[in-house]
# Entry
Amino acid sequence: MEKKVLYFEDVREGDEAPPVVMANITRTQIVKYAGASGDFNPIHHDELYAIRAGNDRVFAMGMMTAGFLSHMVTDWVGDGNLRKYRIRFATRVWPGDTITCKGKITRKYTRDGKSYIEADVFAENQNSEKAIIGTTVAELPSRTAP
Amino acid sequence: MSIQDLIGKEIPPFDIPIGRGKIREFARAIGDENPIYHDAACARKSPFGATLAPPTFTTTKLFWQTGGTTADIPDLDYRFVLHGEEEYEYFKPVVAGDVLTGTGKIAESYEKAGKRGGKMIFVVFEFTFHNQKGEKVLLSRSTMIQTGGVVKN
# Structure
């Protein structure tokens, strides 16, 4: 499948990213991320431990949702084009949640002959509560660049 | 020891070998089927020349695998530590076959009264990563927050 390249000339401030949806997060998915990332904090996979620490059940690592959000960003701006990615964790993500990742361009500019966009990005749950709020800077290819 | 005394504490250098199998496993765990992470032949033909590491690939290993990072800060109670913020700055692509060396320090640490009561402790870790060619590839800053107790939200 040929990937669509996002060129600097073709984007405008206010443009939105194609959303990425991760439906019905499961405990298995959380465990998969634990193995992949090395985050073995039991609060994310050991239900008894999580409950004894005062939670209703296990919850996802913030970085798992940050990974979903980064997937949306890299699909949008292209591989290797990300320059900055800054995220703040707001609401936690629980098994059964559906997470939607979205983004919108806030600024486009050139500096030292390179073309950049800045975007606001976020991941929200099925109740429109933000799990993660962030900003990104990406360098985009230009149609006029040598 | 007061929490402010942590500022400037250095984290001993550590290596992160970047493996293709681990990249694939990680990409799958974040639901990303991009061939640049999964298809070695496609990755070889790409401008990166090898399987690319996803943007957040390097992170949680810092906290739970290398030891000697957050683990040896006695004031933190890990039942109540939340990840507050994460920030990355990317300079060069990280690809399978690279060996990154990370150096880190505690850039900030402070206390604040929590909105929901209790004392909150903030610790900001700052890491710089170089690849085996000595090129700076990545900066990251992680803010960990210890709450006074379990967070209800």
About this structure: The mean pLDDT of chain A is 95.
